[in-house]
Structures are given as C-alpha cells and as structure tokens.
Amino acid sequence: MPLHGENSVSSRLSILTFNWHEPYICLLAKTNHHFDVAEPLVRTLPRRWNEAVRPKPQNVRIVSVDEAQSALANKKYDLVLCHNPQDIKAVARFGVPVILLFHNKLATELAIGGNSVKRNKYLADIKPLLERADVLVFVSESKRADWGFDDGVVIKHGVDPNDFYSYSGSECKILRVGNLIRERNMMLGADIQTEIARGFEISVIGNNQSIKNSKPAQSFENLKSLYGSHRVYLNVTLAPYEDGYNLSMLEAMATGAPVVSYGHPNTPIEDGVSGFCSFDVELLRDKINELLQNETLALKTGERGKEMVLVEFSLSKFLEKWNGVFKKVAGRSINNKMEPA
Predict the structure, then answer these.
(1) In this structure, are residues 314 and 157 in contact, taking their beta carbons and an 8 Å threshold?
(2) Is 55 exposed, middle or buried (0-12, 13-18, 19+ CB in 10 A)?
(3) Which residues contact 302 (CB under 8 A, 6 or more apart)?
C-alpha cells in the first residue's frame, strides 16, 4: 500500500531540517522522504527531540549539528529545510539548496523581543540569509503578507484524522493547549482566557509555569485522550500577532471536539455552525455553558467542525504542496551537480 506522498515524488529525498517543531516535522514525515533532524543549540544546550510531544517517525533520524554539517560537506542531502534565519547561518557555506519556512509573523517575532529592534533594521540584517534561500514557504497567507514578501509559497497546515481518537466529550471541562501562554499574552491571550474560563473547570496543557495547575501532556497518546474527553476546546489566538487558529485547535477539531474561539478576522470557524467565535466574552461564556450542559449540541457542533477542518486543512493538499516544493528544489540540486565547476 503506498504511503503518503509516495506518488508525488518518484524517489525518496534525503532532507536535513532542524528540531524546532516536533508536530510539524511529524506532518512533513508523512511525505515519506528521509529526514535528518539536527538538534540546534539553545543557549549552550541542544534542543532535544521531545518524545512526550510526538514519537519520532521511522523515517526521521536525530543528528547533532556537527554530524549534519559533516554530511552536508559530503553532499549527503538533497536539500535543507530551515525554520528560521539562524538555521540558514548553520548551512549557508554548503552548496545545498535551502527552503526557509516561516511559522510566525515578523511582527510577532519583534514583539516577543520587546520591539528592541526596528523592522527595517531586522530585515536588512537578515537579508543575506534570506537571499541564500531558494524558496520561501509560509504557513498562512497572513504571515507571508506580514513579512512583506511578494513571492513565496503558502502551505496551510494539514491534519490527519487518523492520528486522533474519537470524541466523547465525557468530561464537562474546557481544554486549552499551548506553551508559554502567559509569557506570550499578546498573541495567546492569557488574560482573555482567564475571563472566558472564569468559574468553569479548565485543563491548560503545556509548559506554563506561570499558570496554576498547568502541566504538559505526558505523551502524545495522553494529549489525544484529552482532545477526545474534554467537552469544549478553547482557542484564543490574537490579531495582529497570530492567525485565527493554530495547530492545536485544528487537532482538537480533527478529533471532533467543539471549539469556542475568541474573535479573529481570519478565523476558519463559521460562527454557530462549525464552532462558536466572537469578540464578546460573555457570549462565549454562554456558549461554553450551553455545550457543557448539552451533549448533543457538543457532538453536532464538533462533527461540523471536523468536516470543515478536513476540507480547509486537508492533509493530502498539505503533502501535495510540500512534495511540489521538495521536487522543485531537489531538481535544482540535481541540475547543479550536472553543471561543470
């Protein structure tokens, strides 16, 4: 039986990437190419693959940055997928084609840094690294627009419903998933979350030492169980720093959990149909209460949300677009090898 993406690219490519986002790398692994994942240094320590976040796929191998650079020197890779300009710096001197993937808006990156660097200066500083990339890829159109680039490929997230359990909603609780929610209040709305969830039971899952009783999921299996068992999923992603969704919300919807989301101009939710979305906190509280009290409403809303997310964030479209980019960039690698020095 063919694996995901097997028919889109005739042979398996050897791709180097960096360990910044385990869930996204696991989605990329469904293309069926081979991925070496280098563990980049954060301060002085390597960022290790976290098996509690996602188990490592069979076609993913963990390597050190030194091992990756040695393999690059020996032309072992067809291309490199970078997640930020610093990744490019680690591979720039090698002749391998580079894809640069943007997960965040530039406005968000600058705000997280306290806006200590002006936008124009930051762009000027990283321009040589951006020019080293063969293709720029953005996870949403709004993120491409925020960086101010006219070119680049937009590849929306994909979700695989087969990765998740069925929804039961057996626990009359709210679920929220995210890391550093309080520290990233301007994009993840910790204060708004507190207002919406006041008086309700809520499980906040992730690395959030500043939020009482929050804890990371014990494993991916545990996270899938939480998506399926909690009656309501709460999303708070704030404009202009974030899209009206994130991967955690899409995963909850792929499970069949009904979503209540704080308002956003580009939310994929059709209010009252595939979920509930409003800037009115009291209205959202009323909808949460309805869902907690009415299991039938929760099931129907969650099912319509699941139908929407599997169309709008189709795994097959995600893999088709990524394989198209991989094929294009790997083709440049082959052409370069054929050209005389």
Answers:
(1) no
(2) middle
(3) 167, 169, 253, 255, 256, 257, 258
- The three-class DSSP label of residue 61 is strand
CB atoms within 10 A of CB 92: 17
Determine the pLDDT at residue 11: 83
Element (H, E) at 42: strand 41-42
Instruction: Please tell me the pTM assigned to this model.
Output: 0.92
Is the dihedral angle over the CA atoms 89, 91, 92, 97 positive or is it negative?
negative
Q: Domains along the chain?
A: 14-158+315-338 (3.40.50.2000), 161-312 (3.40.50.2000)
Is the alpha carbon torsion for 285, 207, 137, 54 positive or negative? negative
Helices (H), the chain: 22-29, 65-73, 85-91, 106-112, 119-132, 141-147, 185-188, 190-197, 220-229, 247-255, 281-293, 295-312, 315-338
User: Two tokens at 195?
Assistant: 């207002």
SS3 45: strand
Instruction: Give the pLDDT band (50/70/90) at residue 333.
Output: low
Determine the Cα–Cα distance for residues 113 and 206; give it in Å rounded to an integer.
22
